[in-house]
Structure to design on (323 residues):
């Protein structure tokens, strides 16, 4: 609050030795003991750390100055009452200064002894603390060394792990590439299989249509054969030759398609079934003729060798494969 009464320029100027000494002289001439707080109040500024060394120097030089009568003498041009007052103040100031100096010296000596004791106590505490700190420092050095060793080992492990990770990443990439290639091949095979299956289905439908046509044609031929049986041996012989010729043609067609046996297995099975039906029809023809009292011609019996030959041809083909 005291500093607020002074201009900023005055507060900004640093406290000097002359400022402190002039303030101490003024306080001493005013009959007051110069102290740090009184000097700061008198100057209106200054910190205790700044005022204290200058005040100590003022007390240290006060004895020499007291021996000089002119040190605090008033100017010669002043009137006698003023000079007497100044002399009285001077003597009072000297007495006060001596008392203050003695008290200050006593206080300082006591404070010094207390400070020495405190310093000795603090020195012992500092020695103990230093020993503790040195022990801690040694422990910290050991811990740092252990940490450095652990860090080096961790770095080596991390390097090995990084190397293994890179190797595994390379293996995983190779596996991914192989998987992608396998997937591509699988898709290609699936497309080819679908195309081939479509072709097989189309061929199966064609074969089914052909078998149905053959079945209808054979049914018609069977009806015609039954009617023709009444016309005589000539027509029966012609039907037998026609059946043998169809069997031979079927055997030749099966031989030409030996390379496609896997896809024509069902057709072969159908043809075999039709051959068995023809054999059944021939047997029926014979039974019909025998029931009417007619002899079975030798030409009709000769159908059996033809049927046996067709079976031999079928057995010579590739084995049937179910599609």
């Amino acid at each position: 609050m005291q500093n607020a009464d002074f201009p900023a320029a005055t507060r900004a100027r640093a406290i000097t030795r002359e400022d402190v000494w002039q303030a101490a002289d003024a306080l001493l001439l005013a009959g007051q003991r110069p102290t740090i707080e009184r000097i700061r109040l008198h100057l209106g500024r200054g910190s205790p750390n700044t005022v204290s060394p200058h005040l100590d120097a003022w007390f240290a030089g006060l004895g020499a100055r007291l021996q000089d009568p002119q040190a605090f003498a008033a100017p010669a041009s002043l009137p006698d009452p003023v000079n007497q007052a100044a002399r009285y103040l001077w003597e009072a100031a000297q007495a006060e200064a001596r008392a203050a100096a003695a008290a200050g010296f006593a206080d300082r000596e006591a404070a010094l002894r207390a400070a020495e004791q405190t310093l000795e106590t603090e020195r012992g505490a500092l020695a103990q603390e230093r020993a503790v700190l040195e022990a801690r420092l040694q422990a910290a050095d050991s811990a740092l060394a252990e940490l450095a060793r652990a860090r080096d080992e961790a770095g080596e492990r991390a390097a090995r792990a990084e190397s293994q990770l890179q190797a595994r990443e390379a293996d995983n990439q190779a596996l991914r590439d192989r998987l992608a290639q396998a997937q591509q091949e699988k898709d290609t095979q699936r497309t080819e299989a679908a195309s081939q299956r479509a072709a097989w289905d189309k061929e199966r439908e064609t074969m089914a249509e052909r078998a149905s046509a053959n079945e209808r044609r054979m049914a018609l031929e069977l009806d015609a054969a039954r009617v023709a049986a009444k016309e005589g041996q000539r027509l029966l012989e012609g039907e037998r030759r026609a059946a043998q010729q169809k069997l031979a043609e079927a055997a030749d067609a099966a031989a030409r398609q030996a390379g496609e046996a896997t896809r024509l297995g069902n057709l072969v099975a159908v043809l075999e079934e039709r051959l068995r039906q023809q054999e059944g029809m021939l047997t029926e023809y014979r039974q019909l003729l025998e029931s009417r009292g007619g002899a079975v011609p030798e030409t009709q019996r000769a159908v059996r060798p033809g049927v046996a030959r067709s079976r031999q041809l079928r057995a010579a083909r590739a084995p049937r494969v179910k599609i």
Observations:
- Residues 155 and 161 are 10 Å apart (CA to CA).
